[in-house]
Design a protein that fits this description.
Cofactor: FAD
Number of domains: 4
Pfam families: FAD-oxidase_C, FAD_binding_4
Helix content: 25-40%
Family: Belongs to the FAD-binding oxidoreductase/transferase type 4 family.
Keywords: FAD, Flavoprotein, Oxidoreductase
Strand order of the largest sheet: 13-10-12-11-15-16-14
Protein name: FAD-binding oxidoreductase
Largest sheet: 7 strands, antiparallel
Strand content: 15-25%
C-alpha cells in the first residue's frame, strides 16, 4: 500500500491510525489461531460519517477493509491477513439514547456486550443475549455474526433484539434501517441482511436494541447424567412444566479442564460422564416444587445420578462457571472448533454419528464436547497434542471436515450455528446453502458492495460477488 494512502488516513484520523507491528498483529486477528495477521493499518473512527468517508476512499482506491470489534470470533471473520485496512470500532463505544417507555437503547457499534447488559440492569431492565465473551465482544460484532450464546432457548438470537440499525454500505451510503419501529410493513427488511452479514455488505455503526423485564429469582440446577441420550430425556421432561431460560450440556472431559484451570469446585463427589445445566425462573413456590418433582422423576428413571440446585446468586454463578469456563480453559491447547447444529430432536443421533467419526480418525487427539443443547447447537473441540506443530494439527483436522459436514448436511443441520462463516468455514458453505441460495447471496453482495471492498473473502469466496 502506498505512502499516499497512509498520508490520507493520517490526514483524516490523525493519531487514530496505527501502523506499528504490535498493533497490526493485535488488531489483525481474532480468536482463531490459524491465520497470520498482516494488515497495513488500523483506523479508529468515532462517527458514522468518518466510516462513510473511509469506505468511499476505499472504493476510489480499491482498498480492502476489515471490521474489528472485540475480535472474539472463532471463524476468522475479523482476520486481516492480506494487507487490508482494519476498521476498529473501539472508540465508537457510546450509549447514544435511551427510551425507558419503549425499552429501547441506541448505542454505537463498539459498545461492549456487558456494557449494554449493565446499562439495562441500571435501568431495572434486562438485555438477555449472553455468552462467555460478553466482557469483550462488541454489539456490532455480535450483530454481524448474529451471536447466540447461553440463553437462546428462552430469549433467542441477537437479531431478535434489534429494532433499528445505522449502516454504511459498501458503496459508502448511510442507511437508517427501521428506526426502532415495532411495526413497519413497507417491503424488504434490509436490516436483516446486515445481521449475520459479517461486514461483507457494509459496516454496522449504530444499533437500536430492545430491552425486556428483569427475570426473577433465577435458579441453576446441574445434573450428572448416566448417558448422553439422557440429556434429551431431561430436557423434554423439564420443558413440559417449566419455562427454561437455559439448557446447557458438557462432557466430563470438558469439565475436567475447567476444574484444572482453578477457581471452581466439582459439583458432586462422584463424577458423571455427562452433565446438564438448567436455568429457570422461580417465580413461585410451585415452580420450585415442580422442578424438584421433575428431578426426582429423572433420578427414578435412571437418567440422573446426582444433582445440585443453587441456593444463592453466588452459587448460581459458580455452577455457571462449570459451563462458561470451558472455552477459556481449553484455549491453551489450541482447539480446532466446529460450531454445528441440528433440530434438538435429532441431537442424540447427530452427536453419536459425529463422535464415531472423529474418535476413529483422531485416536490420538482429545475430543471435547459441549454446547447449547436446548437449541440443538453443539461445539466440537479437538485439542492439539503438545508435541504436534500447529500447521500439521490443523491440516489433519481439516481432512475430516468433509466427513463431519456430510453428517451435518444429511441431518438437515448447519456448519455454523452462531460463530459465522468467515474464512474458516467459507469453503464449506455449500454444505448448508444450496447453489441457488449462494447465487442470490452473491447478487446481494454485488448490489451493496460492487467493488468488493468490505471484508472480502469472508462468507463468500473472494471475487465471487462481482
Amino acid at each position: 500500500m502506498s505512502n499516499v494512502v497512509i498520508e490520507w488516513l493520517t490526514s483524516q484520523f490523525g493519531e487514530r491510525v496505527l501502523t506499528d507491528q504490535d498493533s497490526l498483529e493485535h488488531y489483525g486477528k481474532d480468536w482463531t489461531k490459524k491465520y497470520t495477521p498482516a494488515p497495513t493499518a488500523i483506523v479508529f473512527p468515532k462517527t458514522t460519517e468518518e466510516v462513510q468517508a473511509l469506505v468511499r476512499y476505499a472504493n476510489e482506491q480499491k482498498l480492502a477493509l476489515v471490521p474489528s470489534g472485540g475480535r472474539t470470533g472463532l471463524s476468522g471473520g475479523a482476520v486481516a491477513a492480506n494487507g487490508e485496512i482494519v476498521v476498529a470500532f473501539d472508540k465508537m463505544n457510546n450509549i447514544i439514547d435511551f427510551d425507558a417507555g419503549d425499552r429501547l437503547v441506541q448505542c454505537q457499534a463498539g459498545v461492549i456486550t456487558e456494557q449494554l447488559q449493565r446499562f439495562a440492569e441500571d435501568n431495572d431492565l434486562y438485555y438477555p443475549v449472553d455468552f462467555a465473551s460478553a466482557g469483550s465482544s462488541q454489539i456490532g460484532g455480535n450483530l454481524s455474526t448474529n451471536a447466540g450464546g447461553i440463553k437462546v432457548i428462552r430469549w433467542g438470537m441477537s437479531r431478535d433484539w434489534v429494532s433499528g440499525l445505522t449502516v454504511v454500505t459498501g458503496k459508502g451510503d448511510i442507511l437508517e434501517l427501521n428506526r426502532g419501529l415495532v411495526k413497519n410493513n413497507t417491503g424488504y427488511d434490509l436490516k436483516q441482511l446486515f445481521i449475520a452479514g459479517e461486514g461483507t455488505l457494509g459496516f454496522i455503526t449504530e444499533a437500536t436494541m430492545r430491552l425486556t423485564r428483569k427475570p426473577k429469582n433465577l435458579q441453576v440446577m446441574v445434573l450428572g447424567l448416566s448417558h448422553f441420550d439422557n440429556v434429551m430425556d431431561v430436557l423434554k421432561t423439564f420443558s413440559k412444566t417449566i419455562e427454561i431460560t437455559a439448557f446447557e450440556f458438557f462432557s466430563h472431559q470438558a469439565m475436567s479442564h475447567v476444574l484444572a484451570h482453578g477457581g471452581v469446585a466439582a459439583p458432586f463427589a462422584e463424577d458423571a460422564p455427562y452433565y446438564a445445566l438448567l436455568e429457570y425462573e422461580v417465580v413461585s413456590e410451585a415452580v420450585e416444587e415442580e422442578a424438584m418433582a421433575q428431578f426426582e422423576q429423572a433420578v427414578e428413571a435412571g437418567w440422573v445420578v446426582d444433582g445440585v440446585v443453587s441456593q444463592s446468586e453466588a452459587q448460581a454463578a459458580s455452577l455457571w462457571r462449570l459451563r462458561e469456563g470451558i472455552s477459556e480453559s481449553i484455549a491453551p491447547h489450541t482447539p480446532y472448533k466446529n460450531d454445528i447444529a441440528v433440530r434438538p430432536s435429532r441431537v442424540p443421533e447427530f452427536l453419536k454419528r459425529i463422535d464415531e467419526v472423529v474418535s476413529a480418525e483422531y485416536p490420538d487427539f482429545e475430543i471435547i464436547w459441549f454446547g447449547h443443547i436446548g437449541d440443538g447447537n453443539l461445539h466440537l473441540n479437538i485439542l492439539k497434542p503438545v508435541d504436534l506443530d500447529k500447521d500439521t494439527f490443523f491440516s489433519r483436522c481439516e481432512r475430516v471436515n468433509t466427513m463431519v459436514f456430510d453428517i451435518v448436511k444429511d441431518c438437515g443441520g448447519t456448519i455454523s450455528a452462531e460463530h459465522g462463516v468467515g474464512l474458516l468455514k467459507q469453503p464449506y458453505l455449500p454444505y448448508s446453502r444450496s447453489a441457488e441460495e449462494i447465487a442470490y447471496m452473491r447478487a446481494i453482495k454485488a448490489a451493496f458492495d460492487p467493488n468488493n471492498v468490505m471484508n472480502p473473502g469472508k462468507l463468500l469466496a473472494a471475487g465471487e460477488a462481482v
